[in-house]
Amino acid sequence: MIYRLSPSLLSADFAHLAAEMARVGAADWIHVDVMDGHFVPNLTLGPPVVRSLARAAARPLDVHLMVERPSRLLDDFLSAGPGVLTLHVESEAPDVLQSLLREIRSRGVRPGITLRPGTDVEVLAPYLPLCDLVLVMSVEPGFGGQSFLPGTPDRIRAVRRMLDDCRPSCDLEVDGGLTLDNLSLAAEAGANVFVVGHAIFGAPDVPAQTEAFRRRLAALAAEFGGAPS
Ligand code: DX5
Ligand code: ZN
Fold first, then answer.
1. Distance, CA of 74 to CA of 98 (rounded, Å)
2. pLDDT tens digit string along 172-229?
3. Residues 172, 136: contact at Cβ < 8 Å?
4. Tell me, what's the pLDDT at 19?
5. What is the CATH number assigned to the segment(s) 2-224?
6. Ligand 2 centre from 8 Cα, in Å?
7. Residue 101 and residue 98: Cα distance in Å, rounded?
8. What angle do CA 154, 150, 162 make, to 5 degrees?
């Protein structure tokens, strides 16, 4: 598996998003958190901003939709130009969710599925054959700068076992509370894509911190049999 770093713009300066993306230019993807004020209590940005970010970005956008009933906006998000589009398993009825994941793939975008920390990982099973990425949330979605939930590595392990059976090449991403110190817990459990918000954009030297995360991931890839990006 290729190890990838996906810095989250949630902790960046929203008045200077293009410049903020350039500061993390050494990363692989750019993580964009879309929040609607209903599915989660916070509100961020919508399709027009994702479209502008996609034009300005040198890397694929890794768009994480935290919205109720994403079917209402799916076409707008797809035409905005993401590289990955991830939906919450709690946000639509199962049959709708399956058709949305198929639609994402048919438009040439990587489909992703995610779940809240309190949702049983077994509910993912019917969606795994339709996905290129599973995102395990390691904080309650809604805000940056929270602490990594200690039950997360066991959940990552359980998802990796499910993927080994049906979709071994699927990316397994982890999002929330990651630092240089706890990255190894997620990697050892089987994650290969790492979202980092506050620990990168809150650092005094953002490009240097991005490089530090890249070096740490390269070392972890060597330790756990992954491939550096
Ligand atoms: C939380 C978001 C995360 C968040 C991660 O709802 O999905 O992407 O930005 O940020 P940190 O790394 O600060 O926890
Ligand atoms: Zn996110």
1. 13
2. 999 999 999 999 999 999 999 999 999 999 999 999 999 999 999 999 999 998 898 8
3. yes
4. 98
5. 3.20.20.70
6. 7
7. 5
8. 20
Q: Whose CA is closest to 188, among 213, 225, 218, 214? A: 225
Element (H, E) at 70: none
Closest-lying ligand 1 atom to the alpha carbon of residue 138: 14
Is a pLDDT exceeding 90 seen at residue 7? yes
Please answer whether residues 69 and 92 qualify as being in contact, where contact means their C-beta atoms are separated by less than 8 angstroms: yes
The dihedral built from the CA positions of residue 6, 9, 11 and 16, taken in this order, carries a sign that is positive
User: Which ligand sits nearest to residue 11's alpha carbon?
Assistant: 1
The neighbourhood of ligand 2, an ion, using CB within 5 A, equals: 33, 64, 175
Point out the residues that are catalytic: 33, 175
Contact 183, 220 (CB under 8 A): yes
Closest alpha carbon to 62 in 84, 40, 45, 95: 84
**Where are the domains positioned within the chain?**
2-224
Cβ neighbour number for residue 158 with a 10 Å cutoff: 17
Q: Answer whether 0.85 is exceeded by the pTM.
A: yes
Provide the 8-state DSSP code for 29: -
